[in-house]
Amino acid sequence: MNDTAAKKDVQKLQRAVVDSLEDVKAQDLVVFDTEHISSLFERVIIASGTSNRQTKALAASVRDKVREAGFAKPRIEGEDNGEWIIVDCGAVVVHIMQPTIRQYYNLEEIWGEKPVRAKLGSAKPVPVKKPVAKVAVKKVSAKKTTVKKAPAKKTVSRKK
Which of 7, 11, 18, 119 is deepest in the core (most CB within 10 A)? Predict the structure, then answer.
């Protein structure tokens, strides 16, 4: 594979990962170019989830979207406790962490030399809402209608 095709594959994989994380509302999402630091992978993506349940959902979303995009099934570590999950997608490694763990290990200090200006926000086309034509509404005054009650029938009691 030539160099440009490999770069496009990395970009496609990165886009799939970023979209999958945004779908599950990942927080503090950052992407770093690491090809100058390590020959093992080209991007490190770090994201936070607010709970074990959300970090597990984020990892599952990454796994599913990467497969849908045509890449090999990623390897996942740390899913048991959900505090720090690593999703190894080959050229892209994703760290999904809870905020306290992320703050403690501060991976941005290790990998953050070259942040990638990734467009955050879904790359999926957003349907454009067509402007609704304003229709003139004629106000009709509501007239009170009174209903006249029919006089009650008198019952006559007959005496014997």
Answer: 18
What residues are paired with 110 via a beta bridge?
none
Tokens of 39: 């020959």
Owner of token pair 């594979």: 1
What gap in Å lies between CA 106 and CA 103, rounded to an integer? 5
Helix residue spans in the chain (DSSP H): 3-23, 52-68, 99-105, 107-111
Q: What are the chain's domains?
A: 3-111 (3.30.460.10)
- Nearest residue to 97 via CA among 19, 33, 44, 23: 44
Q: Angle at CA 123, nearest 5°, toward 119 and 129?
A: 120
- Tens digit of each residue's pLDDT (9 = 90 or more) over 84-136: 999 999 999 999 999 999 999 998 888 776 667 655 554 444 343 444 444 44
- Quote the distance between the C-alpha of residue 22 and its chain's center: 3
- Full-model pTM: 0.70
Could you tell me how many residues make up the chain? 160
